[in-house]
Please model this.
Amino acid sequence: MTETLGASSDPEQASSRGRRPRTRNQGLRLERLYTTPGVHPYDEVTWERRDVVMTNWRDGSVNFEQRGVEFPDFWSVNATNIVTSKYFRGAVGTPQRESSLRQIIDRVVGRYTEAGVANGYFATDEDEQVFSHELTWMLLHQVFAFNSPVWFNVGTASPQQVSACFILSVDDTMDSILNWYREEGLIFKGGSGAGLNLSRIRSSKELLSSGGTASGPVSFMRGADASAGTIKSGGATRRAAKMVVLDVDHPDIVEFVETKAKEEAKIRVLRDAGFDMDLGGEDIVSVQYQNANNSVRVSDEFMRAVESGREFGLRARQTGDVLQTVDARELFDKITTAAWDCADPGIQYDDTINDWHTCPESGRINASNPCSEYMHLDNSSCNLASLNLMKFLSPAGEFDGVRFAKAVEFVITAMDISICFADFPTEAIGETTRAFRQLGIGYANLGALLMATGHAYDSDGGRALAATITSLMQATAYGRSAELAGAVGAYEGFPRNADAHRRVVRKHAAANDQIRVLGGQDAAILKLATAAWGRTLATGEKNGYRNAQASVLAPTGTIGLMMDCDTTGIEPDLALVKFKKLVGGGSMQIVNQTVPRALVALGYQAEQVEAIVEYISEHGHIVDAPGLRREHYEVFDCAMGERSIAPMGHVRMMAAVQPFISGAISKTVNMPEHATVADVAEIYTQGWKLGLKALAIYRDNCKVGQPLSAAKKNNATATTAAETPAPVPAAAPVEGHRPVRRRLPKKRPSQTVSFTVGGAEGYLTTGSYPDDGLGEVFIKLGKQGSTLAGVMDAFSIAVSVGLQYGIPLESYVAKFTNLRFEPAGMTDDPDVRIATSVMDYLFRRIALDYLPVDRRAELGIFSAEERSGQVAATYGGSDADDDVVEELRTSVDATPVVRPAVEQGGSAPAAGAAPGAQVDPGVAPKSASTVAAPLGKAGSSTELLELVIGKSADAPLCFTCGTKMRPSGACYVCEGCGSTSGCS
Model:
C-alpha cells in the first residue's frame, strides 16, 4: 500500500494539533455542498428537549427511559427514540451518558476528521473544516447514515469496530472448524453478522485418514447453530445473524437443502401437540438450524444442466473426483421445494458473482454476509453507509443528481477514512480489510422516491430511474476512489489485480450504456452518470483505485428509521398507511406522505388529492378511490395488501440496478401463499438469467414459527407444494373450542346514567359480575314501542350476550367509538364533552366506568381529570394539544388525512385543522376518514396493515419490546425500538 503522507511544511502547527503533519499540496480539495462558511451547522436548526420513554408493547413495562434529550425540532419521535436508545453511549442515569444528538455526531465526525488529517486526506485546513461541516450537516439533516457499528463504537473507549458485515472461512480440519465457532461468537458479541462457505469440509460420503467416515458439514452446522442461538448480538439487542453457504456440487448438498424443511415439519408436529413453537417461544429452542440463513451456491454449468435435463456430478472435496451423479432437474426441484416449504435455501449465482470480482488474483468469492449484499474475499469485512434518496427530491418533484453525486463523494471519503483507524474482531479480517478497503455505499427510500415521482415500482420508468440513480452513485463512488488513490494511494492488493479491477469498472460503464430511458428525469440522470463514468475510467486508468469495492444495497433497518425513511433499501412501500408516533406519547395512522406527492406529480388537483387520500385513510388501499384513474393504480402498488407487487416485479427491479452494485442486494422476494414450487423455480431461474448475484424468496405463511400466522386462513384453501394437490385421506373431524356463556347471578351490581347527546335524551343501565367485569347493557332511547327503541333493545341484548360469552369489552369500545351519525354533538357529561353519535358517547362512557386507565389509554379515552393531570405533568401547564398539532404540522402535509390508532395523552387534529387548533383528546377528529372504527391496538406499521387487510403478516415479534417487526431487505426491523433480526 502507498505510504501515508508526512513531512509537513509547518511541523510546529501540526504538532500543536496532536496530528500527523500534512504535506503541502497533497490530499483532496473539497467544495462546500450544504454549509455556509463561518456558520456551524448546529446554529442553523432549532433544538428542543424531549423525554424518551419506551415500553414493551405487550405488557406496558418500561424497557428504556431517558428524559431531557436534545434533538432538532424536525426529527420525528421515532427517530429520536431509536437514536437515544440504540446509539447514545454511557450508562443511563450517569453524567457520562450522552444526552444530545450533537454529542454523538461530534463523537463520530470528530474521529473521522482527525483520522483524515493524520492520514493525509485533506490538502488544507480549509478542506478539513469543509469535510467536518458537510458531514455534520448531512448527518444532522438525515441525508445519510453510517451503519450501526459506527454509532455504537466510534469515538468511545470500545474497540473502534466500524463494519457490520463479515465473511469468514473454514477449512477441512478440526482446528479450523473450532476456530469458526470462536470467530462467529466474537462477531455476534460485537453486534454484527457473519457468513461463510462450508464446501471445503469433506462430505459424509468421504473417508478420513483414520479410515472412518467424515461427519460432513451439516453435522458441524448443529454446533454453530447452537452457539448462535445462545449468544445475543451486541449482548442484548438481537439474536445472531449468520449465513451458511454450500456449493451445489458438494456430495452432501441434498442433506443441506433439506435440513430446515425437515425441521419445519418437526415444528408443525410439535405445535399440533401443544408445544409453544412461535418465534421466541420457549419450545422453539429444541429445533435445529434456525439461527442461520442457508444458501446454495449454483454454477452456470448446473443451471444449464437443469435447463437441458442433463446429469450433474457431485465432487469429492479433496480430489475433485465425481463421487455421485444426479439428475440436475431433480436436485433443482429439491432446492425449490425446500424454499417453497420454509423459505430456505436461498440461491447465489457463483459464476456471475466471480465474473464481477475485482480481485480474482487474490482469491475467489465464496460466500456473503448474512443478508447477501456483501460478497468479497474470505476473512474480510465491509462498512456500510446509506443515502436517503428522498432528501434529493425537490418540492417540484425533480431528483437533484448533481447534489446527489457530490454527497456520494463526501460519504465515500468518510467511509474510506474509517478503515485507517478501525478495529476488527480477528487479525485475519483486519489484514484483508486494510489491504483491500472494501466499502458498501448504498441508499434507502427508493420505493418512496418512485411513488413520489409518479413511477410504478414494477414499470419500465421506475426501473430506468432506479438504474440511472444507482449508476450515478457507482460511477461517483469509484471516481472518488480513484481520486483518493491519487492522493493517498491505491489499495494494497490493487497492483496484483489491476487488470481485473479495471475490467469490472468497464463492465459497470458498459452496463450504463445499455440503460434505456423513457425521457425526463431518468434521461437527465443518465447523462450525468455517463459523464461520471468517463471521468472515472480516465482517473482510474491513471491512479488505480483506493477501494476493492464501492457499493452494496443493504437492508437499512435501524439506520432507515434513524433517517425517517418511509421505505428501506431497494424495497417498495410496505403499505399506503403508516404508523406514526406523536410528541408526548401515543401514535396514529396516517396516509404515507409519498401518496399526495405522487398524486400531484400525476396531475391531480388539490380537491382530488384530498378525496383520494381520505379514501385511502378509510380503506387502506386505492381500489375504487374517487377520481383516481385506473392507469395510475400501479403507482400505488405496495409490498403487501391490496394490489401487492408481483414476485417478478421485485426480481426485475433487482436486475435493473444489479449491474451498478459492486456487491449484491439484500432483498427477499415475497410470494403469495398460493404460489407453487414451479413459481419458485421460475423466480430462481429468472434471477440467474437476469444477472442477479443472489436471491431469496419468502412464501406467505410458509413458516410455523411466526407469531399470529398459524391461524391466518382456513388451511383447506392453501395450495400444496406440488402443482396438483395430492389426495389426502379423510380424517375424523376435530372438535374445536366452543365458547361457554357465563351468566350473571340473579342479584348483581348495576348503575344507571342519564345522558344527552345533541339534544337527544336517554338512559344507560349496566350490570356487572360481583367479582369483576361488565356483563350486560341496557340502552333506553326513544319512546317505548318505537322502532328506535326496539332496535336499541335488540342491540343491547346482542352486546350483553357477547359479553357473557367472553368478547372483551375493549373490542366493543374499539368498534363503536368514533361512529358518526345523528344525533351527535354536545353532551351533558363533563368527561365526554362532544360525541360523534350516541354509540360513540355510550361506549366512551362504558369504557370510563369499566376499563382500567392503561387499557383506556390504548384507546385514547380519558376522563376530564386524567386529561388535566396529563397536561400539567407533561407540559407544565401548556396546552398539550397544541404540541401534538405542532408535531403533525411539521411532519405531515396539509392534505393527508390522519386517523387515530392508539393514542396516549394526545389525539389527532381534524383534517384540515389550522395549526394550533384545539383538539379534545377524548373526542375523535371530525373527518370522513374516521367513519371506520379505530384500528385496534396496532403497535407498528405491520400490525396496522394486518388490521387493514384482515390477515396476519409473517413477521417476528421484537425480542426487546414485543412489537411486530416489518420486513427490511432480507431481515426484519422493529419500528418500536430499532432492533433488527439481521446485520444492518
Residues 460-488 form the longest helix (29 residues). The CA atoms of residues 48 and 70 lie 6 Å apart. The chain is about 40% helix and 15% strand. Residues 567-722+942-973 form one domain.
